[in-house]
Amino acid sequence: MTITGLHHTMLTVTDLERSTDFYERVLGLARFRAIPDDGIVGAKVIFSLPDGNFFAIVEHAHGDSCTFDEMRTGLDHISFSVPASKLENWQKRLREEGIRQSEPAPAASGELVIVVRDPDNIQVQILGRRP
Fold it and tell me: pLDDT category, 97, cuts 50, 70, 90?
């Protein structure tokens, strides 16, 4: 048996509307579906990615209101890829949106990456993928 790929990643957020705005408006992700809270698993927004995978966020009605800290066990960061030739355009777009960002730096793969934080302080990387 072999794992053939990654289907989706889902992050827990403290404010679904605020985080949806960040991922949809700021990062330009395409909303695939919104699922209301059924009282058990929380309200979700699912975004479809051009590679056929999905990225989702969920707000649990009884979740805590702590902001994210990658030093705790669990998620460290999420990394979205863009063509390397477009990384500079992303820097400009994020500046225009008032989003603080790092300077481009080499990622472990050797490609350049910029780092931003979402509304819950989750580290989001924009990685310039070379062809």
Answer: very high
3-state secondary structure the chain: CCCCCCCEEEEECCCHHHHHHHHHHHCCCEEEEEECCCCCCCEEEEEECCCCCEEEEEECCCCCCCCCCCCCCCCCCEEEEEEHHHHHHHHHHHHHCCCCCCCCEECCCCCEEEEEECCCCCEEEEEEECC
User: How many degrees, rounded to 5, is the angle at CA 89 between CA 83 and CA 95?
Assistant: 135
Q: Spell 90-118 as b/e; 16+ CB within 10 A means b.
A: bbebbeeeebebeebeebeeebbbbbbbb
pLDDT tens-digit profile of 8-60?
Answer: 999 999 999 999 999 999 999 999 999 999 888 899 999 999 999 999 999 99
The model carries a pTM of: 0.89
Could you tell me if 49 and 55 are in contact, meaning their C-beta atoms sit under 8 angstroms apart?
A: yes
Read off the amino acid at residue 38.
D
pLDDT at 81: 93
